[in-house]
Design goal:
Number of strands: 11
Number of helices: 0
Largest sheet: 7 strands, mixed
Low-confidence stretches: none
Radius of gyration: 13 Å
Mean pLDDT: 94
């Protein structure tokens, strides 16, 4: 079992940057793929980025070139570096343990998330 706590969100102006952190507890962190999701008001939760146990990463087209996912297994932490933020990036951001096959499936418990607000 892995428990996750997101942090690093805040209020920034368009064009600014934020670095989100996801701190994990439990001894299974290093053998699980991880992902960042986000949910904007009135919208479905959407997958933003994934990182495998081997360090391979993927991000959705809408954030490609702006967001970078990384992990530090020794620190049991996953990061999301967000640059050139846009108002449409405003959402609550969550991390989770995922199973990646032909699709990405969250298999852990959802944490509180961290709010990211980007002003125009």
């Amino acid at each position: 079992q892995v428990q996750l706590v997101e942090s690093g969100g805040g209020l920034v102006q368009a064009g600014g940057s934020l670095r989100l952190s996801c701190a994990a507890s439990g001894n299974m962190f290093g053998i699980n793929a991880m992902a960042w999701y986000r949910q904007a008001p009135g919208k479905q939760r959407e997958l933003v980025a994934t990182i495998t146990t081997g360090g391979r990463t993927n991000v959705v087209d809408s954030v490609k070139g702006r967001f970078t996912i990384s992990r530090d297994n020794a620190k049991n932490t996953v990061y999301l570096q967000m640059n050139s933020l846009k108002p449409e990036d405003t959402a609550v951001y969550y991390c989770n343990v995922v199973k990646i096959t032909v699709v990405t499936i969250p298999i852990g418990s959802w944490g509180r998330g961290t709010q990211v607000t980007v002003s125009s």
